[in-house]
Amino acid sequence: MAIIPNISSDIAGPLGAIHLPRLWSKLRMSAASELQADYPECGGGFDQMVLDGLGVDRDAAVAFVKGNKPSYIAFENWVKEQRGGSIPQSEIDASNAAIRGYNHADEDRAGILSAAGLSDDGSILDAVNLNNLDDWTELHNALS
Fold it and tell me: Is 78 buried (19+), middle (13-18) or exposed (0-12) by CB count in 10 A?
């Protein structure tokens, strides 16, 4: 059975960059042919946002993980190496703020909430929490 990623986009590793652990997990699952088909290994949303925010080339990141199957810490170290060994905290903070501040379109929000069995009362607007609900709904449905 393919795996549905369940690491929240709001989780950070030692570097402090949120979403990076989720991206790594999706890339590792994809490299092992275990990522659930509805999930992109490296999509244009938060995946691209964290890579752009940290100044890392998308194709290089995908190739590194697929070719080396690194642990999370090895991946994080590779990310830092792409920037000469460190990434300014201000860039990490800006990336985190961009991810935490992103909201899905109204139609996407309504679909996610409906699938999860929630009414759209305007209390959940941010994409991080909506994506969590979507993952949990997908996991539940896959196991039903």
Answer: middle
pTM of the model as a whole: 0.94
Report d(CA 21, CA 27) in Å as an integer. Answer: 10
Residue 66: CB atoms within 10 A of its CB come to: 14
In contact, 78 and 13? CB cutoff 8 Å: no
The domain limits of the chain are 1-102, 105-144
Q: What letter represents residue 140's amino acid?
A: H
pLDDT tens digits, one per residue of 111-133: 999 999 999 999 999 999 999 99
Tell me the residue length of the chain: 144
